[in-house]
């Protein structure tokens, strides 16, 4: 399958919605229409940092998406590019859609003077890890997350 990649466009909303719902389900993340409306608004807002590319099948159907944004790198005194979401629908997984989406982000990052590309995937997502292993170098950084004002054990902060 010959896949093309381009920036997301206003007319892509229905296909993008289908893909983003699939991405949320795959990651076991509950998502509402309101959440998708907000993200879609970000993607079309030139003032918002989040950007997107989509992978298009020969029949014109969207089969993949990638969201990314610039982030400051104070220690390096530069700006990097963070890959937020990468998803290819099951019908596109035997194509090179994921690789082409990542390449589009890399090209945009280079054009924008970014000094580093960074992305994460779940350790159990072996299919994505194979693609990322070909695209970038796995690091030894460990990622931590915390909801503001919540203790790591789920309690409320007293500070």
Structure commentary:
By secondary structure, the chain is of the alpha+beta class. It has one domain (4-135): Gcn5-related N-acetyltransferase (GNAT) (Aminopeptidase, 3-Layer(aba) Sandwich). It is built from four helices and five strands. The chain has helices at residues 13-26, 33-44, 97-111, 126-135; strands at residues 4-7, 51-56, 62-73, 78-88, 117-119. Strand 4 (78-88), helix 3 and strand 5 (117-119) form a beta-alpha-beta unit.
Identify the CATH homologous superfamily: Gcn5-related N-acetyltransferase (GNAT)
Q: What is the total tally of β strands? A: 5
Number of domains: 1
Largest sheet: 5 strands, mixed
Q: Can you name the CATH architecture?
A: 3-Layer(aba) Sandwich
What integer is the average pLDDT?
92
Cα gyration radius (Å)? 17 Å
Number of helices: 4
Supply the CATH class. Alpha Beta
The strands making up the biggest β-sheet line up spatially as 1-2-3-4-5
Distance between the termini: 56 Å
- CATH domain topology: Aminopeptidase
Helical fraction: 25-40%
Unreliable spans: none
Class by SSE composition: alpha+beta
Task: Choose one word for the global shape.
Answer: globular
Name the helix and strand elements from N-terminus to C-terminus, one letter apiece: EHHEEEHEH
GO molecular function, one term: acyltransferase activity, transferring groups other than amino-acyl groups
Keywords: Acyltransferase, Transferase
Domain N-acetyltransferase: 3-154
Protein name: GNAT family N-acetyltransferase
